[in-house]
Design brief:
Number of strands of chain B: 11
Shape of chain B: globular
Number of strands of chain A: 11
Order of helices and strands of chain A: EEEEEEEEEEE
Structural class of chain A: mainly beta
Largest sheet of chain B: 7 strands, mixed
Distance between the termini of chain B: 36 Å
Oligomer: heterodimer
Radius of gyration of chain B: 13 Å
Order of helices and strands of chain B: EEEEEEEEEEE
Distance between the termini of chain A: 39 Å
Helix content of chain B: under 10%
Largest interface: A-B, 21 and 25 residues
Structural class of chain B: mainly beta
């Protein structure tokens, strides 16, 4: 399977700060890039997603920045809250509409109160 | 988004036995997938469950070890056969429909002793 590299592995942020998680992919055929949030004991839940025809997408406190030429994308969580403490996975799909994902290795985020 | 129910939520099994995990979606979906997630690790795609035909397996996964059924558009099963302690993991069902994101069940936590 094609790799999606994710960093950092873990992240500690103060309440109100900005959390930034980065991902890089190899296969230029990828055309859908979601971010999932997973709490302990739960399945992953879609947070936000982007397609390569835009460079940025914002939903509330969550923003994806996408750099097609560098094959990189990142998640920014503004005004981070303790309730955001979870594991975040980036993913990529190379077949539009099938949502067969290759996942990154995950980032464990802890937001301190 | 649709709701996925997985059964069982967890199980402890003896080595050499088999376990069948059920995945029920509350609406018809085009695609269903099975993933494996080692505790604290990322998600690895096992196979795509195809309705009315044999599942499509990813590299490293074979039908004899992980037989999959999908008799209709809302239901699928994954069997983990002849289990060993290395099969201890979380198994996740995922589903999507055309032009919608993929959503996940809560997972089945399997421990093989």
């Amino acid at each position: 399977q094609q790799q999606v590299k994710q960093s950092p592995q873990s992240l500690i942020v103060q309440k109100g700060g900005i959390s930034i998680i980065n991902c890089a992919y190899e296969n230029t055929a990828f055309d859908y890039f979601p971010w999932y949030q997973q709490f302990p004991g739960k399945g992953p839940a879609l947070l936000i997603a982007i397609r390569p025809d835009v460079s940025e997408k914002k939903e509330g406190r969550f923003t994806i920045s996408f750099n097609k030429s560098a094959k990189q994308f990142s998640l920014h969580i503004m005004d981070s809250q303790p309730g955001d403490s979870a594991t975040y996975f980036c993913a990529a799909s190379k077949a539009s509409g099938t949502y067969k994902y290759i996942f990154g290795t995950g980032t464990r985020l802890k937001v301190l109160a | 988004s649709a709701v996925i129910s997985q059964k069982p939520s967890r199980d402890i099994c003896q080595r050499g036995t088999s376990l069948t995990i059920q995945c029920q979606v509350d609406s018809q979906v085009t695609m269903m997938f099975w993933y494996r997630q080692q505790p604290g690790q990322s998600l690895t795609l096992i196979a795509t469950a195809n309705q009315g035909s044999e599942a499509t397996y990813e590299s490293g996964f074979v039908i004899d070890k992980f037989p999959i059924s999908r008799p209709n558009l809302t239901f699928s099963t994954l069997t983990v056969s002849n289990m060993s302690p290395e099969d201890s993991s979380i198994y996740l069902c995922s589903a999507s429909d055309r032009n919608t994101e993929a959503f996940f069940g809560q997972g089945t936590r399997l421990t093989v002793v």
